[in-house]
Design a protein that fits this description.
By secondary structure, the protein is of the alpha+beta class. The protein is built from 4 helices and 8 strands, in the order βββββαβββααα. It comes from Limnohabitans lacus.
């Protein structure tokens, strides 16, 4: 049995336009929650690529990360199952494109919603995690780091996946 601690690596898009932030309303095991467009990093992609993919899947808007807002570590204990989950989140800000007609939102995403910072703060009891507000507040405060702070080795995308026989 593998007992090594392995946090879940996630990426999040902090999207602001005209003083409003784009959030998604999604169905979770804990009910209907608000979140930044975010999700798990997939194999063979850089964090910035994963963020762009997740934003498109959850909002139907193309998203181009231009800066890292921050790297966050959080822990969540699911009340119903007592599951203990740790997340390592990389949050990016960037440029949003026009909504792509005909694209459906990812499974579980009910809708997208644009909210002011005050509205985001007032809805904190509905946030999927405390990182929703923290990432937006860091963005609002002007926290930005160059994308080059996260290096992705070429082997991430170029090596073939291991098969069960070779693992």
């Amino acid at each position: 049995m593998d007992t090594r601690w392995k946090p879940n690596v996630t990426v999040a898009a902090i999207i602001e336009k005209d003083g409003r932030y784009l959030l998604v309303e999604e169905l979770t095991r804990e009910g209907l929650r608000l979140n930044n467009p975010a999700g798990h990093l997939d194999p063979f992609e850089s964090p910035a690529e994963g963020c762009a993919r997740e934003a498109l899947e959850e909002t139907a808007h193309p998203f181009k990360p231009t800066a890292l807002v921050g790297v966050y570590l959080s822990r969540f204990q699911r009340p119903a199952t007592q599951e203990d989950i740790t997340y390592l989140r990389m949050a990016f800000c960037g440029e949003i494109g026009e909504q792509q007609p005909g694209l459906s939102l990812d499974e579980g995403i009910v809708r997208t919603v644009w909210m002011t910072l005050d509205e985001v703060r007032a809805s904190a009891d509905r946030h999927r995690s405390p990182l929703v507000l923290r990432c937006i507040e860091d963005h609002q405060a002007g926290q930005r780091f160059p994308l080059e702070m996260i290096y992705t080795d070429a082997a991430v995308a170029s090596l073939p996946p291991l098969t069960a026989a070779s693992a």
